[in-house]
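Morning run. Coffee first, then this:
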Amino acid sequence: MNSFNEQLVTKKKNSRWAIRPLVPGEVYTNREEHLEYLYNAALDAIGRRTMSTVLLGQRRMGKTEIFKRVVNRLFFEQDHLDPNAVIPVYYSFKDEPLDRWEFAIGYTENFLRWYAAFRLREPSILSPDSVSRDGLSEMIKARLEVPEGLAGALNFMRFLQEKDVTTPEDKAVTLPRRVSDWDESTIVMFLDEFQNTRLPQYNFSIVGFMQEAVESPTCPHFVTGSAMSILAREILGRGSLFGRFRSHPIEPMTNYWGARLAFKASLYHKAHIEKKMLPVVADRCGGNPFYITAVIQQAAEQGKPIISEESLNEILAVDLSSGFIWAELNDQVTKWIERINEYGITKWVLYLSALEEGDRLDLDRIRKKLVEREGKHVPMETIRDVLIKLSRGDLLQYMELGGWFRKIDDPILLEFLKVWGRIEVEGHDRAKVQKELIRHYQTLDRRINDHLGYLAEVYMAQVLWNGQRKTLAGRFFHSNEDVTLPWRFIYIRHRTRLGAAKEMEIDVEAAAAKEHWICESKWWHGRKVGHAEVESLLQKAEALREAEGEGLETMRVWFFAHDGFTEKAEDLMKKKNVLWSVREDLDGLLESVGLRRLPNI
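And here it is:
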């Protein structure tokens, strides 16, 4: 290598990343469960105990970031000289046209770069600016002990360049397994944007060839991507790869962790947000880390503090119509429509589906609206075909078994589509749409009247999430017995209702198989919770018990009051076996399950 290349290698040696994460460490929040799962699964491959795995979740949930951070940990936290160490390889399937030879050569070159970079612990080898493709094989031969499998891979690279290979895409995707099998080494492939193997830019298919590659105890494949429908339904849910992957789902952040992300992002981007508004931001953004961060960035850019739902609504309106969220979602929607717009009506169908009342789409109503808006008489089968193609891009949901469609479970995307439709489909002036959207958002009713009470709910819910399978000290609940939480909660929900009456709203409802929790929070300063509030909670618990029926075995009732309860209220709770906590108790519970104490407000 020349002196310039040597300087690059030396500089990169001191870095702690082989592939740079996009989210700053100061902001990155609560993906430990997934990081640990994939990291440990990769290490378990040494003992041949790991199955190929798909990390499955909606767009912008941080899946790529998780992959990168796990790869970096594997790269730096192992002894790279240990012959039993796991060799991590990261590859992202391109969103650009490739022929089979370009793909095969690129995939193989990427594999060899990661192999050499790990064994030499020199991340700069991953860059063609440091080591050229032609120089890669010679460098490996000169600096590494080359076992038979790796030697075969170097020969294969030469054969590819000479185009002396039958079905090069097949041989390329199975190469890592051939190397690990032959050398009895352990390689873990991290494949991102896996759905791109199914898109039109590839005029050849590799999915069928991947079956042999992923069924390897020496070389498990971890895959993810940004189009969940294609991944789950088309690639892994049928055909040659069906049943070959363990599924590991990634859900939206809980409001506790969404609030933590909002807090960290506000410090990093120098935006002011009141602590009581942190979980409200998380709630409005549906727990999506990208949306949460985008709102904080927009607040910083506008110099507008988030001190109320009104200020949050105004920031959301700006970002949905011209900010970070607009840019990201507009790019996503535009690219997908360009791929599938064979009938020339795709934009209208998507926009009209977003305007539908309720979750379920009425295809006949969409057909009639097309006539009204565009003067086009479109057959029902054509509309169905367009909707199916839109569902492949996660822009709506296709319930394949029932043959019907519903809106995507993403409140921000749905709001965006309405704004996007007015600008891009109906042709309205962007400034006018933005002004009207801001005005509309400023008139919205507050979704949460008691922000401090909601903050406590979020902390209570997270205690239940983190406390699963654990026994918590009874003293924190004013109980003579310790409290064992269920092995798994099926769901934990905020602000659910039993019937239409406002007084029947439940702050936190948590359901396990045969056990239910109902929780209430009162963050009252200078005022204790009285007998009447406890009676009200007991009535809700009884109504819920009746609704659940005979399958319910255990009903837990938990009441939090920041400043405590009256003596009469405590007597009633003891009599009725109600669990109750004051601030000091909830702080103790939070610490016992590894969470932060309540903020001082």
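The radius of gyration is 27 Å. Good start to the day.
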